[in-house]
Amino acid sequence: MDKALKGGQQARRAALLCQNVRFGFYLDCRRRQVKGLDYHQLPDGTHSPEDCADFLRHSCGIQSRAELDHNDTARAMLERIVADYQHWERQQRMLDRIAEGMA
């Protein structure tokens, strides 16, 4: 990677996403599904902000989040990850409303 690359809006977006505790919960849930684990094997809160950053860098095929502002393929993958996360959040809110109605 060119050391002169500076992170812009997409890099900041990714950094904020990685600091979001709920995004870490999403990655916990995703990992449980992919690995066939139950909640006791991988509880919510397992993914730290650094784990989230590692996931994004690996998934987007980059070494630094700053590359997101200069690499169209990486930026497209970030969009996909954000869309998947937002879909998961909508599902969680719906499940929470259902559970509240039954309580």
What does this protein look like?
By secondary structure, the protein is mostly helical. Helices cover 67% and strands 0% of the residues. It is built from four helices and no strands. The protein is elongated.
What's the helix and strand layout?
Blueprint: H1 9-19, H2 21-35, H3 49-60, H4 72-102
Highlighted features:
elongated; single chain; 4 helices; mainly alpha; 103 residues; 0% strand
Major beta-sheet overview: none
Give the helices and strands as they follow along the chain: HHHH
Shape: elongated
Radius of gyration: 15 Å
Helical stretch count? 4
What gap, in angstroms, lies between the N and C termini? 53 Å
- Give the uncertain stretches in residue-range form: none
Which structural class do you get from the secondary structure elements?
A: mainly alpha
The tally of beta strands, per DSSP, is: 0
Beta-strand content estimate: under 5%
Mean pLDDT metric: 93
Helix content: 55-70%
